[in-house]
Amino acid sequence: MTQSTPHVPEPMPEPSPEPTPRPRPARATATAGEPGPLRRSVAQHIKILQDGYARDGSQAVQALARLRRGIGRQANELPELWGIVGIEGFYAAQPDGRHPSEYEALRAERATHVAMTLWALHQQSNRARAMHVGDGTSLGAAVRRLMSGSDRDEAIHKRLVRAGTATSFDVLAHRLRELVVLLRKAEIPLDYGLLAEQLDEWQKPGGPRVVRQAWGRSFHAYRPAVVGGQQDGDSREETDNGITEYEMKDQT
After folding, report:
1. Which is nearest to 247 in space by CA: 215, 224, 221, 225?
2. Which residues contact 42 (CB under 8 A, 6 or more apart)?
3. Which of 46, 45, 71, 30 is nearest to 173 (CA)?
4. Fewer beta carbons within 10 Å, N or C terminal of the chain?
5. Is the pLDDT of residue 41 over 90?
6. CA 60 to chain CA mean position, Å
């Protein structure tokens, strides 16, 4: 009986190495890189009004009064604010004639409305000093500057924490207003173009966390001006959220 040669299976080919996954690009945020169209348009519009207000120009004075009446209202709710808030610059600055989606437009309009009305409140009755600065001064740094080492610092700090843990855009706007009133009394300026950009970011999925981190980071990074060869320091450590964990409890 003839025996057949046993079948020897061919060796399995070696698996091809899996391609190395490309690193995902870091999320573009409102706190890094070049200023976007919203930040530029708000800053430019405020500068025009701010310069006019410093000269006691009637149009600028009236514009600020109208903007203050928009505090606590929804964007585009008051017809008297149409053409004063300055959202036109955002649309005009879109690259290649692109038109923002309805979602992008709504975010930008809400952010611009809140930033502009808060600036008008901040600048109220102050023609000697500009309360908008285009130097990137974030909310955290401005609030830190407000704290002077007195007993009232804890109350100020809690207000910043409450803003950072706001659960809705309307609540956030209200809590920002409380901080702006304090900044106005102390004549501490803020970059409202940056604030507008951060308010736009806040409305995106995951945005509150991104903005909270930016405010916490600027709060801890702030260093006062050197006076007499000494500089006041601070030993607080920043958590991943930019605000210490114990401060996050019950601060809604």
Report:
1. 215
2. 86, 89, 90, 112, 115, 116, 192, 193, 196, 197
3. 71
4. N
5. yes
6. 25
